[in-house]
Amino acid sequence: MSYCYALAERGNTLATRPLGSQMREDLVRRAVGEDEVVLDFTDVIGASHSFADEFVACLAEEARNGDLNFTLAINGASPDVERVINKALDRRGLEVPVVV
Questions:
Q1: For domain 2-99, which CATH number applies: 2.40.170, 2.50.20, 1.10.3470, 3.30.750?
Q2: Mean pLDDT of 76-100
Q3: Are 67 and 31 in contact (CB under 8 A)?
Q4: Average of pLDDT values for 62-71?
């Protein structure tokens, strides 16, 4: 099963490490029993580097290490948001597939 986590429901500009941590914990609770989680960035117009690191990169690292029971994919990120996400992932040597 696939679960879609719509980030725009939490705001169209996502910033700060504490928000990223809070949203990561929320996502992990909601995605229990899912095989795949799609991080849907549709309508998100901005994301800070600290948010992207704490939310996306930490999730990707936990998935890679087997701490999570689902895989990740990214959907709907604008070019600016995707650039910030990719930088956070690159710093940790991680990749997450982008779904079109």
A1: 3.30.750
A2: 92
A3: no
A4: 94
Half-sphere exposure of 76 (CA within 13 A, CB side): 15
How many other C-beta atoms can be found within 10 angstroms of the C-beta atom of residue 66? 7
Closest residue by Cα to residue 59 from 29, 100, 15, 82: 29
Q: What is the 3-state secondary structure (H, E, C) of the chain?
A: CEEEEEHHHHCCEECCHHHHHHHHHHHHHHCCCCCEEEEECCCCCEECHHHHHHHHHHHHHHHHCCCCCCEEEEECCCHHHHHHHHHHHHHCCCCCCEEC
Is the Cβ–Cβ distance between 74 and 67 less than 8 Å? Answer: no
In the predicted structure, residue 60 carries a pLDDT above the cut 70: yes
pTM to 2 decimals? Answer: 0.93
d(CA 10, CA 68) in angstroms, rounded, equals 22
